[in-house]
Request: fold
Amino acid sequence: MNFEKKSEKWQITYVTPLYGGWDLLIECKFSNLEDLDEIVTFCRTDIELSQCIETTTTLISTKRNYED
Reply:
């Protein structure tokens, strides 16, 4: 599956499966909180992707000196 949105100002930078209460961890790069809203909305409304998702949990974290 390819979920790249070329017109967006955000990017998925890392994905890994998890075991336990959550199934997947997705790391995204974005500039402001409005972009985060676009990412979550995209995941919930994209026709192909939304068929695989029951619920989402959004956690915000920052990295010091994040490298591009």
